[in-house]
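Any chance you could type out some protein's one-letter sequence along with its backbone structure tokens so I can compare the two?
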Amino acid sequence: MSTSTQQSSQSSTQHPIEVVTIETTSLGDRSYLATDGTTAVVIDPQRDIDRVLDLIARLNVRVSHVVETHVHNDYVTGGLELAARTGAHYVLPEHSHVEFEHTEVADGDVLDAGTFTVRAIHTPGHTHHHTSYALANGAGTVEAVFTGGSMLYGSTGRTDLVSPETTVELTHAQFHSAQRLVAELPATAAVYPTHGFGSFCSATPTSGDASTIGEQAATNPALTQDEQTYVDTLLAGLDAFPAYYAHMGPANRRGPAPVDLSMPQPVEPGEVRRRIRGGEWVVDLRERTAFAAGHLAGSYGFELSNNFVTYLGWLYHYGTPLTLIGESEEQILTARRELVRIGIDHLAGSATGDIETLAGGTVADGALRSYRVSDFAGLAERMVEGPVQVLDARRHDERAKGGVRGSQHIPLHELNERIEEVPTGEVWVYCGSGYRASIAASILDRPGRDVVLVNDSYSNAAHAGVEDERPTEGAGAPAEPS
């Protein structure tokens, strides 16, 4: 758990308020615990609440309220279970339409928490019911505001997650919500957003690691642009968001079950191979070049790194049996923690150990497969030799800025549905860093294709001389020899 603590210097009481940040970097989100040293309020907790419970025990505080800024679309909340475990009031904005007992707050409602208070401020935009919470000390001075998916650092939350029909309406509302926060709160108040640290819930890229209302007034587009310019810019910048988001809102409204972080059942090598043959998902967590060097035929490579849960959740079909392959039990448990955050609770099992043993065979007899790994310099050399099929697995917004000349563009999240568009034979696969390309390579690596992973930063494409500043969207013809 990554945490940081900030103590207000403005507090005029004998009970300074501390805000502890709980990072979930893999989803680009933050949760918070605010406390006067005795009583605490938790804001937007993630599903794996053991991190929060450990923090509560370490600080030796009583949680009076667990507060949600909105019904989340990018993760399954731990709020319901945390409130039950701590005896706290579980607080959601009115019109959240959840199916369990909770405390409902409307605009202007105030929660008493020890020597401080938390006031609800209706800030629609990210959702219709979205609510921010202003924290005031015992003297009534607002020291901080928890803005969820409303005001982010240098940006605002995206407004297209509810429905296409309401996106324009919510974008206008998001503008006015940011304006309201600046108008009603002191410039010195610290801003604590939930989204915006790599989250796809951010409408545009965010900047900075801390901020205040005054700083945002000078830099945030919702506060420096006129309304129509802001709306037009935000709408133009919206691109695809992870497919698993469709499952998060419904899960949060039903009320998530208590979290299970235990080790999945071990699976024998022969059974792992049978599951692959049966069309089940078997996901290999090892580092991308280790997977390329040797992996079970038919398995998927999702290196367990910071982007693991986003892209597995984006491509995975919920309900499909899922078995994990890892180098150790610790690796499996880390993956499980990531997966429960997006509601993938049931794992069909796990296997650890030497990949050759799990395969029960070799590359020669087809039990193991492998493919080459190169970089953009290697691609440049190959393009000199003659035409070569190249696949760009980046998003549409990235592609619009340029791509490898003559390359075919299929974003990773569309590849499973469009795989027949990729010709057989040799195909080089690239993305922005090599991570998404490695997943795409594992999907493409089937008999009839000779895959080469470009494990390199796209910034090196220009240096290698393979970049075309004016790509043809969807181009599939091999590049001409240079």
Summary: The mean pLDDT is 93.
